[in-house]
Amino acid sequence: MADSENRAVGIDVGGTGMKAGIVDLDTGELVTDRVRIPTPDGARPKDVLETAGELLALLGDDADGLPLGVCFPAIVKDGKTLSAANISDDWIDFAAEKFFEEGLGRDIHFVNDADAAGLAELRYGAAKGVPGLTILTTLGTGIGSAFLFAGRLVPNTELGHLLWEGESIERIASASARERLGLKWKEWADNLQHFYEHIEFLFSPDLILVGGGVSKNPEKFMPYLSTRAEMRIAEHRNNAGIIGAASLARTDEDHLARL
Ligand code: BGC
Question: From CA 114, how far away is CA 120, in angstroms rounded?
Fold first, then answer.
């Protein structure tokens, strides 16, 4: 199929679910239904790899031979995962890309999940053509961030780990914190407001994007937030990780220079 040349598979490893889809890299659209399997308990490398294999099997023959990108909730540098906030400590200083390449028998590109989401918005969404600095934040099990400046991604910013009263601010402001702490939407939004005020003071972004699972209910919390910079919901919402990981797999670093 000629147009399969412009397709790639993205897998998004989250704290609670692992999701995958086949992406049309010309449009940034998913060309199949998204498939999802709960993240295995403890999220250890061997189990995450096995679940990635099951996701590929669910996508079927169409996924065979396509470039594969995996996005992951950790700092990722040169194919190694260097941190573990909501996953097993086994990922710290772990050659994840190589482990997946050997385990799945294909080339893989590993990338931080928020960076993948940022790339999706930069290439196909709300950050496309935006001048200045866009900061994308993902509100999920943790808080992820991506800095997008002059058409480029600055990888591995970790704004969810800014300290607030002695602990990572994601402990009180992530979407899962709202549930864990039993907060009303307004109470949670107050925590988020601290977060956005702080990053706005530190970095003076021109646009702030809000992504992650909770971005499907913007009316519940966006009205309580106020920032100098324009704030918008990310266009690709919960699929941004899959789309960005797929686009990076196909284009690799080379393409980053041309974004
Ligand atoms: C991790 C980040 C990740 C974010 C969202 C944080 O706890 O440190 O690497 O992007 O969660 O998943």
Answer: 10
- Cα 62 to ligand 1 centroid, rounded to whole Å: 30
Residue with tokens 């960005």: 244
The model's pLDDT over 120-139, given as tens digits with 9 standing for 90+, comes to 999 999 999 999 999 999 99
Ligand 1 mutation pick, 136, 139, 141, max ligand atoms within 8 A of CB: 141
Sequence ranges of the domains in the chain: 4-116+239-247, 129-236
Q: Regarding the domain with residue range 4-116+239-247, which homologous superfamily does it belong to in the CATH classification?
A: ATPase, nucleotide binding domain (3.30.420.40)
What is the DSSP-derived secondary structure letter of residue 94?
Answer: B
Mark 167-189 as b/e (b = at least 16 C-beta within 10 Å): ebbbbbbbbbbbeeeebeeeebb
- Judged against a pLDDT cut of 70, whether residue 2 lies above it is answered with no
